[in-house]
Design goal:
- Helices cover about 25% and strands about 25% of the residues.
- By secondary structure, the protein is α+β, with helices and mostly antiparallel strands.
- The strands form 3 sheets. Strands 3-4-2-1-14-13 form a 6-stranded mixed β-sheet. A 6-stranded mixed β-sheet has the order 5-6-7-8-12-9. Strands 10-11 form a two-stranded antiparallel sheet.
- The longest helix has 22 residues, at about 120-140.
- It is globular and about 45 Å long.
């Protein structure tokens, strides 16, 4: 059984003690990280190696950044989404049994505070998602097995947020963004978390502001998607919600799935 965890850590430097605790207690075979907020060359490869993990990262200074840790050797396939090398939001590695593991941090798309009518970030998000859809379609067409995990920054359904009316016009929830996620899922991906929690109000993110965590004012932003070739191997998936209640937590909780390969 392979346990795969995905976690937006909202700064690896700030969350390193919790990541080390997660590795020790949850013992994932693979760990996908997002928003590491550090340059690639500063990623603590040796620290993770001392804990028995191989790792690759795609980072940049102060924001964004993704990484993958693995108990078994992995091969780096791509450290950027084709055509979007300007931001560190995508990494694809291959395991020894030729399964691709992809960690993504989809752009938020929200307009700058000083220019609320600026749509350039939303347009970038939509184009980025188009590129991701094309990448996943190609893997499926080539019969490549894969796991795609990360922070997708989309409120897909009204039940995925504590108060949908507050977000109706946001870059997380506008119809154009929802449609892109619908296209991604329509490639044939298996939505692991929703499969096991189909009817629940299910959250992975609680803002640092406004007492969101104690009030359970959450949003379902993070996901693990499984390629059609591996769908029958998925045995479980859930949110490790208790990690949001730790000291100095991320505003996201880790999510996981278990596959029998």
């Amino acid at each position: 059984m392979q346990k795969i965890i995905s976690w937006n850590v909202a700064s690896l430097r700030a969350r390193m003690p919790l990541v080390e605790e997660l590795l020790e207690t949850e013992k994932p075979n693979l760990l996908l990280l997002q928003e590491i907020k550090m340059e690639t060359e500063k990623f603590p490869v040796l620290d993770f190696e001392s804990r028995g993990y191989y790792s690759f990262a795609s980072g940049q200074k102060s924001w964004n950044g993704v990484a993958i840790l693995s108990h078994s050797p992995i091969q780096l396939i791509r450290n950027a989404l084709p055509g979007f090398e300007d931001q560190a939001r995508f990494i694809d590695v291959k395991t020894t049994n030729n399964i691709h593991i992809i960690s993504v941090y989809v752009p938020n798309g929200t307009a700058p505070l000083n220019n609320p009518t600026d749509t350039s970030r939303l347009e970038y998000k939509l184009k980025w998602m188009d590129a991701l859809i094309a990448y996943i379609q190609q893997l499926i067409q080539e019969n490549v097995p894969f796991v795609l995990g990360g922070d997708f920054n989309v409120i897909y359904q009204d039940k995925d947020v504590y108060n949908p009316e507050l977000f109706r016009d946001s870059a997380l929830m506008v119809s154009s963004v929802r449609e892109k996620l619908r296209e991604l899922q329509g490639t044939g991906l298996f939505h692991a978390l929703r499969h096991f929690h189909s009817q629940e109000k299910f959250y992975t993110f609680w803002d640092f502001q406004g007492g969101a965590w104690p009030r359970n004012n959450g949003i379902f932003l993070d996901a693990l998607y499984i390629s059609p070739l591996l769908r029958s191997e998925v045995k479980n998936a859930d949110v490790l919600k208790e990690w949001r209640g730790k000291m100095k937590p991320s505003d996201h909780a880790p999510i996981f799935c278990e596959l029998s390969f």
